[in-house]
Amino acid sequence: MSKPGEEGIAGAFEDIPVLIVVTIATGIFLFSLVHAYVVYLEQLESQRMYENANDLLSSVRSYEGLTHEFREGVFLGDKLITLTSEALREDYDPNVLGFDYQISIIDTSDYPNCVNYTMSFSSIEEPPTKNRYSVTTSISIKVDEDYHAGQLIVMIWG
Length: 158
Prior knowledge:
By secondary structure, the chain is of the alpha+beta class. The chain contains four helices and six strands, in the order H-E-E-H-H-H-E-E-E-E. The radius of gyration is 29 Å and the shape is rod-shaped.
């Protein structure tokens, strides 16, 4: 603004650059605030899905339809071969859980006389390609008198 006694012709137009700077700074601040809130909500959803996947993994590790002598993380090969997706879906209903899932059990042992296999149980036909959450743990699979190393993978979405 002009001081008294100075001859200025801009008058109120001198305040326009200041107004532009303040408006841009306020816009950047509001954009940053909204962006931070969206990222927070995404992280909250991601954490919730990870916890759901972990809970399902823990439940499957002690699932009576798979375990040998009720020992957590020790699956019986005969039970594993006879288990069906329908039987598993009865105990782990996706409508009750609130998400769909795929459970994979892989025999990773390197015994020369055994057949390695992968069993996969899914609540629906084909899992989506986006927004999947997966957790993995080691298990033992009792086949005859041997204990095979294995891997349990639980993937959820929805």
